[in-house]
Write a structure and sequence with these properties.
The protein is an all-alpha fold and 941 residues long. It is built from 44 helices and 7 strands.
C-alpha cells in the first residue's frame, strides 16, 4: 500500500448508523465516583446570627433578601420575617426600625405578590407593636405609603389602600397627624387637576378645579374604585375628628350628644365634699377654679401672622380657612360622584328614587364625608362660622341634588346566574367589602337628613320650611312606623329631631316631632342602648328647654313623659341599675324645678318607691339610694303610710346608717318643729305624724313584729328570771349597731324640739302605751329607750312611776345579759355592742331619778338560785366601781347594805366564795371613800 493511501485510511471518518449508540473513544477517562455525607446535627443547633427560620435564614439574611431583584425571593423573605417574628417576638425590640423601613419600601414593588406579602407582614406587626413605639419611625412609613398611594401603577394604588386600612385600625392618631399630606393623596386617587393657559403669550399656568378621573384599565369599575377610596377617606376624617384635643374638637357641640359621644370642653368635673369632715375644722376645704374643668381662653394673639388662605392641603386642617379651602376642593367632587351614582342606572323618572346597592353605598359615603367635614372646626367658636359658610355656599346645590328624589329606596333585581359571571361577581364583592357593603336605605336617608338639618338656620326657619317638610315627614314616619330601630339609626334620628326643634321654633312642629319620639319611647322590650338614648334625649331636652326653644317648656308631650317617670322607676326596680340612675337624674332635676306633673306623680307612687321590702330605695345601689332619699325633701306631703315606709327603711338595715340618718334629718326639716322659717313651702306632715315617725324609728320594730316576738320561740332570746324581769330578744350585731346610729339621730331631732317637757311627755306616753306591757323586748329597743330617756330628761322633769318600772326592768335585764355574756367566749366584734349597752345603762342609772333605787329593789337575793348569786355580786361590784354611779350607790347605802347582807347569808359553805370576798372588799372601800375605781365592765376583777 502506498503512503498516500495509508494516510487516507488513518484519517477516514467513521460513519454512524441511525439508532445506534456512539462508541466511546479509546482514550476516554472514567470520572464516575461515589460519596457519603457526614451529618452533624449539633452544629446546626446554634448559630452566631441568632434565631433562624426553617430555611436556616436569620433576620439579617431575610432583610438583605428584600433588596433582591427577584420577586419570589422578596416574597419568601417577607413570609420568613413573619415566621421568625412569630416564634421570636423579642427580635422586634432590636430590629423594629429595620423591619418597618424594609417592609414599607416594598409597598411600591412591581410584583403584586410582594406587595400582598408586605401588607400581610404589616397586619401581623400592627397588633404587636404599640403606637408609641411606632411613632419615631412613622414619618418614613407614611412617606412610603404616600408614594404608593400616588404611584402611577394602578395595582400599587389598590394595595396601598390595604396598607392604609391596617394603619387606620391600629394607628389612627399617627395618621391624623399627617393630614396635610394624605388629604391630597386621597384627592389624586379619584381626580386630577387640569391646567390651562390664560391670556396670550407665556403667561403662567394656573390650577383649574379638580375633576373626576376615569381609568379604564382597572380591574374594578370607576364607581367601585371611588367607593373604596371614599370609604378610606371617611375613616381617615373620622380619625382626624376623634384625635383632636378636647378643647378643639367642637364638631358636634350643638348636636345631641347621644350614645358614647360625651365629654369635651364643656364637661364639668364636680368636686365631692363631705361636710361632716369639715364641720369641726378637721381640714381646709379646697376650692378649684371652674369646678375642675379647663378654662376656655379666647385670645386673638398669634405668634406668627396668618398666611394667605389656600386649598387647605399643604397647611393641614388647623384653621377655619384651611378647612374651607379643603372643603371647596372636595365638595364639588363629591357632588359629581353623587350625580354619577344617582343617574347611572335610572330607568325612568318614576323610579329615580330606586338605587342599586353599589350606588347606595357610594352616595352614603358622600354624605358621611360631608358630615365629617362639618366636624373639622378647630375651635368651638368656629363651628357657627363653618356652618354659615356651608349654608351660603352649598345649600342650593344640596337641595338640587340630594332632595330631588328623597327618600331613596333599594331596587329589587332578580338574580340570574350566567356563564362567565362568577369572576365579575367576585370582583364586585371584593370592592363592596373594601367599601361599606352594609348600607341600607334607612342609613342613607338618615345621613341625608343629618346633612340637610345641619344647614338649617333659626333666623331663616320659615324659608327652610318648604324643603324641610320631606325631612320632617321621613323622621316622623320612621319613628312611628313601629319598626324597631337600632341604636345607631335612632341616634341619627334624634340628632335630626334635636336640630329641627332648635331651629324651627314652631309649637306645632315641636309637638309633632316630640310625639313621634314619644311613640318610639313607649314601645315595649326595647334594648338598653335604645332606651338610654331616648331617655337622654328627653332629659336633655327638659334640662335645656330655655336654651333649645321656648316652645319646649310648654310641651304637653314632655309633661306627660315627666309624669310617667316615677312609675317607670318603680316598675324597673333592680333589673337595670344604670337605667334607674338615668331616670333618677331627670326626676331629681324636675323635682328641684317644682314641676307640678312630676311632683304629683311622685307623690302618687311614693309608697311603692320607698317600700322597705321591694321598693327601689332598698334595691338600687347606694348612689341611687342617696338620690331617692333626697327626693323626699321635694314631696308635697308626707302622709302616715309613707312615713311608715320611711321608718321601716331606716330600721330594716337595707340602707346605710348614714343614709338613714340623712332621711331622718330631711323628715325633720319638713316638719313644723324643725325651727326653720318656712317660706312658700309648707310643712309636709303634722306634728302627730312626725312624733309617730320618730318613735317608730326609735323602737326599731313594728307593732306586728313585736306581737310576733311575744309568742316566739326561746332560741334567740334570753328568758325572764328573778334577775331579768324581761325576756330579751338578741338582735344581730350588724343590725344592733345600725339601729344604734339611727337612735343617735332620732335623739338629736327630739332634742331640737322647742319644748323639752312636752317632747318628753309625748315620748313617755308612747312608751307606756305601746311598750310597757311587753314581756319580750329586743335588746336594741331596750337600749334605745334608755338612751333616749336619759338624753331628753331634764332636771325639772319627773318621769311617771310606770315608765320608771319599765325602764328599771329594761336596765336590769340588759345588765344581766352583759354579765352572762362575760362568761361566754366573746363573739367577733361584739365589744361594740357591749360598750353601747353598758353606756346606755350607766347613762340611764345616773340621769334618771330613782331608777337606780328601783333596780336595786328589784334584786331579791332570797329568790335567786345559787348560779345567779355570783351575777348579782358582780353587778353590785361594777356599779360600785363606776365613778359616775358611786355617789348614787352611796345615796342608797341602806338598800345596798341589805343586799350585801342577804348575799352573805345565802352564801353557805365552809369557805367563803371568791365573788363574795371581792364584793365585800369593794363595798368597804366605797364606804370608806378610798377607792378610785375603773369605769367599765372590762375593768372588773
Amino acid at each position: 500500500m502506498t503512503k498516500k493511501r495509508k494516510r487516507q485510511d488513518d484519517f477516514q471518518k467513521v460513519k454512524l448508523k441511525v439508532g445506534k449508540k456512539k462508541p466511546k473513544p479509546d482514550n476516554v477517562t472514567n470520572v464516575s465516583f461515589k460519596t457519603k455525607g457526614i451529618h452533624l446535627p449539633e452544629q446546626l443547633k446554634s448559630s452566631e446570627s441568632g434565631p433562624t427560620t426553617h430555611r436556616q435564614l436569620s433576620i439579617k439574611d431575610l432583610l438583605s433578601q428584600l433588596h433582591h431583584y427577584s420577586g419570589g425571593v422578596k416574597q419568601g423573605a417577607l413570609a420568613g420575617l413573619r415566621e421568625l417574628l412569630a416564634k421570636n417576638p423579642s427580635l422586634l425590640d432590636a430590629h423594629l426600625s429595620s423591619v418597618l423601613s424594609e417592609a414599607a419600601a416594598v409597598f411600591t414593588d412591581k410584583e403584586p405578590g410582594v406587595r400582598a406579602a408586605a401588607v400581610r407582614l404589616l397586619r401581623f406587626l400592627a397588633p404587636r407593636v404599640p403606637a408609641e413605639r411606632v411613632a419615631p419611625f412613622f414619618p418614613l412609613l407614611g412617606a412610603h405609603l404616600s408614594c404608593a398611594m400616588t404611584h402611577i401603577a394602578e395595582g400599587i394604588q389598590e394595595d396601598a389602600l390595604q396598607a392604609l386600612d391596617v394603619l387606620l385600625e391600629h394607628y389612627p392618631a399617627l395618621l391624623a397627624a399627617r393630614s396635610a399630606v394624605l388629604l391630597k393623596n386621597f384627592l389624586e386617587l379619584i381626580s386630577q387637576q387640569r391646567l390651562w393657559r390664560r391670556g396670550r403669550g407665556g403667561e403662567e399656568r394656573k390650577a383649574a378645579p379638580w375633576a373626576l378621573s376615569v381609568s379604564p384599565g382597572r380591574r374594578v369599575t370607576s364607581q367601585q374604585w371611588r367607593l373604596s377610596v371614599l370609604t378610606r377617606l371617611g375613616r381617615f376624617l373620622q380619625a382626624v375628628v376623634e384625635e383632636r384635643p378636647a378643647e378643639e374638637g367642637a364638631g358636634s357641640r350643638d348636636v345631641l350628644d347621644v350614645g358614647e359621644r360625651e365629654g369635651g370642653c364643656g364637661k364639668i368635673t364636680p368636686v365631692e365634699l363631705t361636710w361632716e369632715e369639715h364641720s369641726f375644722g378637721k381640714g381646709a376645704v379646697q376650692v378649684y377654679e371652674n369646678a375642675g374643668a379647663r378654662a376656655s381662653v379666647c385670645s386673638a394673639f398669634r405668634l406668627r401672622p396668618d398666611t394667605e388662605p389656600g386649598t387647605g392641603l399643604e397647611e393641614g386642617l388647623t384653621s377655619v380657612e384651611t378647612v374651607k379651602g379643603f372643603a371647596s376642593t372636595l365638595v364639588p367632587l363629591l357632588l359629581e360622584v353623587w350625580v354619577e351614582a344617582s343617574t347611572s342606572e335610572q330607568g325612568s323618572s318614576e323610579n329615580a328614587h330606586l338605587l342599586h346597592p353599589e350606588a347606595m353605598s357610594l352616595m352614603y359615603q358622600v354624605l358621611n364625608i360631608l358630615q365629617l367635614l362639618r366636624c373639622l372646626a378647630p375651635q368651638r367658636h368656629d363651628q357657627a362660622e363653618l356652618d354659615a359658610w356651608f349654608r351660603s355656599t352649598y345649600l342650593s346645590d344640596f337641595r338640587q341634588h340630594f332632595m330631588k328624589n328623597f327618600p331613596y329606596a333599594q331596587v329589587e333585581v332578580a338574580k340570574h346566574k350566567k356563564k362567565g359571571e362568577s369572576k365579575r361577581i367576585k370582583q364586585q364583592a371584593a370592592a363592596a367589602a373594601a367599601g361599606d357593603a352594609g348600607v341600607d336605605p334607612l342609613a342613607l336617608n338618615l345621613t341625608l337628613c343629618q346633612v340637610m338639618a345641619n344647614l338649617t338656620s333659626s333666623a331663616d326657619g320659615r324659608q327652610d320650611a318648604d324643603w324641610l317638610g320631606p325631612v320632617r315627614a321621613f323622621v316622623r314616619e320612621s319613628l312611628t312606623s313601629g319598626v324597631r330601630l337600632g341604636a345607631r339609626h335612632l341616634a341619627n334620628l334624634l340628632e335630626v329631631v334635636w336640630k329641627l326643634v332648635l331651629t324651627q321654633r314652631n309649637k306645632g312642629v315641636t309637638e309633632e316631632l316630640l310625639q313621634a319620639v314619644s311613640a318610639q319611647y313607649q314601645q315595649r322590650n326595647l334594648t338598653l342602648p335604645v332606651r338610654v338614648l331616648l331617655l337622654r334625649f328627653f332629659s336633655r331636652l327638659y334640662l335645656q328647654e330655655h336654651e333649645v326653644s321656648p316652645q319646649v317648656s310648654r310641651s304637653k308631650v314632655l309633661s306627660r313623659w315627666l309624669a310617667a317617670l316615677p312609675l317607670q322607676l318603680a316598675q324597673l326596680g333592680f333589673r337595670n341599675p344604670h337605667l334607674s340612675a338615668q331616670l333618677l337624674h331627670t326626676v331629681q332635676a324636675a323635682a328641684a324645678r317644682r314641676n307640678r306633673e312630676l311632683l304629683h306623680s311622685l307623690q302618687t307612687h311614693a309608697c311603692r318607691l320607698y317600700d322597705p321590702e321591694e321598693g327601689s330605695v332598698v334595691l338600687l345601689p347606694q348612689d341611687s339610694q342617696h338620690h331617692l332619699v333626697q327626693l323626699v325633701y321635694f314631696l308635697p306631703s308626707l302622709p302616715p303610710d309613707l312615713l311608715s315606709c320611711l321608718s321601716r327603711c331606716c330600721t330594716a338595715g337595707r340602707v346605710s346608717a348614714s343614709l338613714a340618718a340623712a332621711l331622718i334629718r330631711i323628715v325633720h326639716m319638713r316638719s313644723s318643729l324643725s325651727g326653720w322659717t318656712l317660706g312658700v313651702q309648707e310643712a309636709a306632715l303634722s306634728d302627730v305624724d312626725y312624733f309617730s315617725f320618730l318613735f317608730s324609728t326609735l323602737t326599731g320594730f313594728s307593732a306586728e313584729e313585736l306581737s310576733v316576738l311575744q309568742g316566739g320561740s326561746e332560741e334567740d332570746m334570753c328568758g325572764s328570771s328573778p334577775l331579768s324581769p324581761l325576756s330579751l330578744y338578741h338582735t344581730e350585731l350588724e343590725h344592733f349597731m345600725h339601729h344604734w346610729d339611727v337612735v343617735e339621730e332620732v335623739c338629736h331631732c327630739l332634742e331640737t324640739v322647742g319644748s323639752r317637757s312636752q317632747c318628753f311627755d309625748i315620748l313617755q306616753n308612747a312608751i307606756c302605751k305601746n311598750l310597757a306591757r311587753l314581756q319580750v323586748v329586743p335588746d336594741s329597743t331596750a337600749a334605745a329607750l334608755l338612751r333616749s330617756v336619759s338624753r331628753l330628761l331634764g332636771p325639772s322633769l319627773l318621769p311617771s312611776e310606770e315608765l320608771l318600772r319599765f325602764l328599771a326592768s329594761c336596765c336590769l335585764s340588759l345588765l344581766t345579759l352583759l354579765l352572762s355574756l362575760d362568761h361566754e367566749p366573746p363573739a367577733q366584734d361584739s365589744s361594740q355592742k357591749r360598750e353601747a349597752v353598758w353606756g346606755a345603762c350607766v347613762g340611764a342609772l345616773g340621769g334618771v331619778p330613782r331608777l337606780l333605787r328601783l333596780v336595786l329593789q328589784a334584786v331579791q337575793a332570797s329568790e335567786l338560785g345559787e348560779e345567779e348569786l355570783p351575777l348579782v355580786a358582780q353587778l353590785l361590784r361594777l356599779l360600785l366601781q363606776h365613778s359616775q354611779l358611786r355617789n348614787h350607790m352611796l345615796a342608797n347605802a341602806t338598800l345596798l347594805q341589805h343586799l350585801v347582807q342577804d348575799l352573805t347569808r345565802c352564801c353557805r359553805g365552809a369557805a367563803r366564795e371568791q365573788w363574795l370576798t371581792d364584793l365585800l372588799y369593794c363595798y368597804s372601800v366605797a364606804l370608806s371613800g378610798q377607792h378610785r375605781g375603773a369605769a367599765g365592765p372590762r375593768d372588773a376583777c
